[in-house]
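Q: I have three molecules that I believe assemble together. Could you output structure tokens for the complex as a whole instead of separate predictions?
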Amino acid sequence: MKVETRKFVAKTGNEAAAFAMKQINPDVVAAYPITPSSEIVMIFSKYVADGEVDTEFIPVESEHSAISVCIGASASGARVITATSSQGLALMHEILYIASSMRLPIVMIVGNRALSGPLNIHCDHSDTMGSRDCGWIQMYCENANEVYHTIINAVRISEEANLPCMVMMDGFIVTHGMEKVFVLEDEEVKSFIGKRKPLYSLLDVEKPITLGSLTLFDYYLEYKRNQLEGVIKAKKIINDVFEEYRARFGINVPSFVEEYNIEDAEIVVVVMSSAAGTFKEVVDELRNKGEKVGVLRLKVMRPFPYEILREKLTNVKVVGVMDRAETFSTMGGPLSIELRAALYPLSKRPLVQSFVFGLGGREFGIEDAMKVFDILKDIGMKNKITEEYIYIGLRE
Amino acid sequence: MKRILSLKELAERTVGLASGHRACAGCSFPSIIRMVLGSSDYPVVVSNATGCLEVVSTIYPYSAWPCSWIHVAFENAAAVISGVEAAYKALKRRGEIKEDKKIVFIAIGGDGGTYDIGLQALSGALERGHNFLYVLYDNQAYMNTGIQRSSATPFGASTTTSPAGKSSFGKIQDRKEIIEIVAAHKIPYVAQASISHWGDLIRKLRKAYEIEGPKFISIIAPCVIGWGYKEDETVEIARLAVETCFWPLYEIEEGVYRVNYKPKEKLPVKTFLLKQERFSHLIGRDDLIEEIQKKVDEKWEKLLRLDGLKVF
Amino acid sequence: MKLKTWKELEEGGVVRNTPTSPQYKTGDWRIKTPLFSESDCTHCLICFLYCPDSAIKVKLGKVIGIDLDYCKGCGICANVCPKGAISMKEEEI
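A: Yes, here they are, computed for all three components at once.
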């Protein structure tokens, strides 16, 4: 079915996520409410109450237990989904590493929200950037439509890679913003995700296994290298699964990056999630004036698609990297640091300016995006970067 | 009601921790595990909290466990087993596990993972009503990290973070009443037991395996290193804990208290205390020994008053 | 046992065909050795119940000996034996 003929519905990001979960009909869902992602499990628990899914829904007493239940269930061969935000994700932190080290597929939907302190409920990426080194796949979506499709893909990717996978959307901006979502038929979802084939299961009691051994200096290094191999291999899986999805359903959901007018661009902004939409509008405006500007939206932060970034950015003159998180390294946000590291081995590489924006839900509008391009143009003219990082929208 | 197994029957079920684990010589928990696993007529999945038991039994690639076993972290054994049980229910509902396939789900933790850091996950799992047995092996301190005090450490015991000294007699607080806390969740079965009274322990385990819903059994776990006694005395120490009523054997089934063992002659608590290095600073401190005796007596008398009463 | 390379490890660190711990012998921890007197033994199996190392060998309900590959020499068996059928002897170094 082509996208033009496909039916669409108006849904918020949270509703789109819950609807995808309904069609996936996972074996086990365990979650604890937290703003702004609470709605996902609220809506889902209504599906459970109405018998529209036959999932075992476990309303736990904390996020720490939510992810622990997910591990127990996934290690028992179940298909598992959870959702959280901010403090909830931070509370899971310890266990995130264990889920990935056990090579357990789990899909976690995250409504990105600033971390305390100070307490704030609005969007930034400090929560999931804080867990980017936990061994999970991380996919940041731009809008509700992409959230819906990415969750369905994430089930396949997670289970084929045997790695847990986070699917992100910007808190309130996307979680609560109503958008057009092109939906698949239930049967299409079912046939695309198929049945899970676990590496092992605790419930295979005739063939007992031990999982979560104490692994000391004689094996830990090998263990981690082995785990890394799984993440390396996940790149091809991510690519192939999305490719199959696009081909089968005619829906153009990107796998690693979305390119917007970058073919001949001299100035490119690299940005994640919903702010990409703002930049695309500004690019349209500037292109009309004949300026060679573009946007590269990074969707997958882990595994980091440095090969693609190198290829796409090597011939660009100036790159601006937008970080919706601070690292306190005093040299910019996480994406800018990694991007610069990725480009460093190139003999021909762009000037890279780091920007921090939107922390704690600070508005980021057309004028802000325009300002970013102005700064990048100025850098291009001077052929020089003078500031390590620039905060956008900050009262000085 | 399932009958107690004879030791011959238990021996035929070679399902304890296998040889080759690294527990200290004289450790009490291998016999706890032998009884816990051996008492089940069904296959078992264990979720083990971080602690001595987990550490000594699964040093990669050597595992001493004869059953499906998972360890995730210190504080979440009850949450992990909730997930396993949820998967079992879901997969059964979808016909991927046969309807008549019974599996027993067990979470095992020490006192640190149960009374302290794991209390929240335990409480959550009990309240949600998962069908599992929680086994607490209570050695009354954080033995795995070097004998630090826990909220299960008894009044007067010297540990590395409640050391006896010139101006200290060891831990100044009482033990948390974990049985009462667990029972307050109104779960169908709660019990306290000891390996020294193995018939009682096996009976409790076999009863627990037939009850639907959350069950909790607390088992005293004497520790050669942490308690400071000769390594061949483990069973004897456990027996003295029971015979002095320091560790009464009782159960709360559907809200009804039952004292399972009343010593013919209740021994003074100092016969238990003074065999152990952790209480050796109490020699000559009759006032403190008397205080401990008073605490033991009060608890015992309270139990006798509750014996046979339905409390919820 | 030859240590595996990272490529040989199973994903997720899963250990199959458990228990695997018998490949690790703990008998050399022992400083005292249990001596088993078959003629005094009534095969009550109390020693089997309490041996922390699963080192009491039982066949058809009868104690047939002690597995010194694993026995750590704690002496619990000798202590709990009601018939004095096990005694502990210092290891000769």
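A: One point stands out. Chain A touches chain B through 44 residues (CB under 8 Å).
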